[in-house]
From TrEMBL, chain A:
Gene3D superfamilies: 1.20.1280.50, Ribonuclease Inhibitor
Protein name (record): F-box protein FBW2 isoform B
SUPFAM superfamilies linked to this entry: RNI-like
TrEMBL record, chain B:
Gene: LOC100782740
Protein name stated in the entry: SKP1 component dimerisation domain-containing protein
One Gene Ontology cellular component: nucleus
Quaternary structure, from the entry: Part of a SCF (SKP1-cullin-F-box) protein ligase complex.
Domain SKP1 component dimerisation intervals: 117-155
Record domain SKP1 component POZ: where: 17-80
Annotated keywords: Nucleus, Ubl conjugation pathway
Biased composition (Basic residues): 222-232
A Pfam family assignment: Skp1_POZ
Localization annotation: Nucleus
Family: Belongs to the SKP1 family.
Region (Disordered): 206-250
Cross-referenced InterPro entries: SKP1, SKP1-like, SKP1-like_dim_sf, SKP1/BTB/POZ_sf, Skp1_comp_dimer, Skp1_comp_POZ
Length: 321, 347
């Protein structure tokens, strides 16, 4: 009877409450474990409540492009048009960008680092990304100022942009401000801008600062072409927090602390946590190895003892009557 | 002293209260500022003017029981006070969610119905921590969920994320077995019809025996013809039954000899009785053949399925470990300490 009562209380959990619980689980568990528990959980996990936020950036770094496209299509289809956040790395095929754009009517946060989309693809899909307020196109080396201009003209609500570059991709190249001019001329509502290791120069930054009055955070670490006077910044832009160009730990710490309430910044904090976790894992692994070694030594000792026993038995065999 | 008492009582009396009714019909009074922390209750008060008296109490959703409401109000009472530090709030939250899974589930459901998002997030994270890293069987046991999925449905999710050939082969074997079971059900229906026919054939045989002296010869003739037909049917159906065919050939030869010797004495046959006899025996033979085939196939399939299930089970721990390691780093942390403790115990 008590069990029946408990069962009834669990049945009362309606799909959206279950969905909230499942969103706290890893992708692997949502896809492979939860659907095999019972019918109601299988139905809840394939419904839209679980997939309004899709974050497979970590997973996508380890799988093949075609697998990634298939999984992404499956998950986006499950969201049934309610997709709000999408984070995926390394997309390559043009059709998957079109698929994302076709299902972006509720999308406000889009992270596509290391993707292979080019200016032409961006031109095709930008019109459907009008609800985007945060966009991450870091390490997308095939897009340029024209793509950023198309994004700025179509995404009127854009408040956050990540355009970080990898140092190896930008080393030994001349400074260019075309992307900075595109940002300055089409993204007036920007509050958060990251352009680490970008080829931007001082004049580009000044253009952005002059045309984005709401800017609160600017990450220009590794932008060696930028030289701005701190006193000048404090006087002209008192609300602005600037990181770099020098890469210093204290700056990083200050930056994250100041923006800890922003959801996107908290994601970065989560990343730091994962990195720390990895370190701990290695330590634990070492302990495991030591444990195994001890176990092996113990086995050897046991064998030796066994042989001793036999010898003793032989030595003390009683004489024949 | 009396002044102090009056001062303490006075603000308390002035504080506004609202009335809340839970699903079991009980009504209670709650401080308005605490109840307003729930968005749903806040809407009822502001938009509809409910809750100001006992006669127009706010009716809470079905999922909110008195016990659960008490917990929710405790949570609201703590968090609606301004000036508490984040550390204090987190400490309170950690203590707050220390309860059994049943109550935690009820609390999640109730908080969700009241649109109290901070509490929903807190309780759903706690439940997710309970679920994390466990197998479907363990989860079913902890949460008392029914095992209402078929084998096919349990294997379905794995098809989406794994290219393991054993999974695919197991799925194929299951499909094959299901098909065989369906065919066997059809055969049972046919056998029922056969039994019905057999009854009539027995009556007819009795009438033949009692009726005429010439019946034995007539019966022999019918048998001969039936066996000829059986031979043809076997050839058409399955070539793997060569041995059976050879045996039948020998019998057929014997019958033909007898037939030739008896030819001079043959008697006219009754068409109806002949037809019935042929039909009855034919069905009987068909039944024999089918029964012979099915057990063998069934046994073979069962053996294959069991073999693969065993192999799959033996590999399962490794596969689960692989899945866990391929998941988030956090899971790796969860897994390794257990391994450590296991090794320490052994050492």
């Amino acid at each position: 009877m008590e069990e029946a009562c408990e069962f009834r209380s669990w049945a009362e959990l309606i799909p959206d409450a279950l969905g909230v619980i499942f969103t706290n689980l890893s992708l692997q568990e949502r896809v492979t474990v939860i659907p095999r528990v019972c019918k109601s959980w299988a139905n809840a996990v394939t419904g839209p409540y679980c997939w309004q936020e899709i974050d497979i950036k970590d997973w996508s770094n380890r799988c093949q492009p075609d697998q990634l496209d298939r999984l992404l299509e499956m998950l986006i289809t499950r969201s049934c048009g309610t997709l709000r956040k999408l984070s995926v790395s390394g997309l390559q095929t043009e059709s998957i960008f079109t698929f994302i754009a076709e299902n972006a009517c509720s999308l406000h946060t889009l992270r596509l680092p290391r993707s292979s989309m080019n200016d032409s693809i961006v031109e095709q899909i930008a019109g459907r990304l009008s609800m985007i307020s945060f966009l991450d196109v870091s390490y997308c080396i095939k897009i340029g100022p024209y793509a950023l201009e198309m994004i700025g003209k179509n995404c009127k609500l854009l408040e956050g942009l990540c355009r970080n570059m990898h140092p190896l991709d930008t080393a030994e190249k001349p400074h260019q401000d075309d992307e900075a001019y595109a940002i300055a001329s089409t993204m007036p509502k920007l509050k958060h801008l990251e352009m680490a290791y970008h080829l931007i120069s001082t004049s580009g930054v000044l253009q952005i600062l002059a045309n984005c009055p709401k800017l609160e955070f600017l990450d220009q670490r590794g932008c060696w072409g930028v030289t701005l006077d701190h006193m000048f910044l404090k006087q002209k832009f008192p609300k602005l927090k600037v990181l770099g160009p020098l890469v210093l730990d204290t700056y990083e710490s200050d930056g994250w602390d100041d923006f800890s309430d922003v959801s996107d910044s908290s994601e970065y904090l989560a990343w730091d946590f994962v990195a720390g976790g990895m370190g701990e894992y290695y330590v634990d692994d070492s302990d495991s190895y030591d444990g195994m070694w001890d176990d092996e030594a113990r086995l050897d000792e046991l064998q030796f003892g066994f042989y001793e026993g036999i010898e003793d038995a032989g030595m003390y065999w009683p004489p024949s009557p | 002293m009396s002044e102090i008492d009056m001062a303490v009582i006075k603000p308390e009396m002035m504080k506004p209260y609202i009335w809340l009714e839970t699903s079991d019909g009980s009504i209670q009074q709650v401080e308005q500022e605490i109840a307003m922390y729930c968005p749903l209750i806040c809407q009822e008060i502001i938009q509809k003017g409910m809750g100001s008296s006992k006669s127009c109490a706010i009716c809470l959703p079905q999922r909110v029981s008195p016990v659960t409401l008490s917990l929710i109000l405790d949570y609201c009472r703590f968090h609606q006070v301004p000036g508490r530090s984040n550390k204090e709030r987190k400490s309170y939250d950690e203590k707050f969610i220390r309860m059994d899974t049943k109550r935690l589930c009820e609390l999640t459901s109730a908080a969700d119905s009241l649109q109290l998002k901070p509490l929903v997030d807190l309780t759903s994270r706690a439940l997710a921590r309970i679920i994390e890293g466990k197998s479907p069987e363990e989860i079913r046991e902890i949460f008392h969920l029914p095992d209402d999925l078929t084998e096919e449905e349990k294997l379905e999710p794995l098809k989406n994320t794994t290219d393991d050939p054993r999974i695919r082969l197991l799925n194929r074997l299951y499909a094959k077995k299901r098909k065989e079971l369906r065919e066997r059900e059809r055969l049972k229906n046919v056998e029922v019809e056969e039994e019905h026919v057999d009854e009539r054939s027995v009556d007819d045989l009795l009438s033949f025996i009692n009726g005429n002296d010439g019946d034995p010869k007539e019966v022999k003739t019918s048998k001969n013809k039936k066996k000829n037909r059986r031979k043809k049917e076997q050839q058409q159906k399955n070539s793997s039954l060569k041995e059976a065919s050879e045996v039948n050939k020998v019998e057929v030869n014997g019958q033909s000899i007898r037939h030739q010797s008896a030819e001079a004495d043959r008697i006219a046959e009754t068409s109806n009785s002949h037809t019935e006899d042929v039909f009855a025996h034919r069905e009987f033979d068909d039944g024999d053949i089918d029964d012979g085939i099915d057990p063998a196939l069934k046994e073979k399939i069962d053996r294959e399925v069991e073999d693969f299930a065993r192999r799959l089970n033996s590999d399962w721990p490794e596969r689960m470990q692989e899945l866990l390691s391929s998941g988030q780093e956090r899971k790796m942390m969860l897994f390794t300490p257990n391994g450590n403790s296991f090794l320490r115990r052994n050492a």
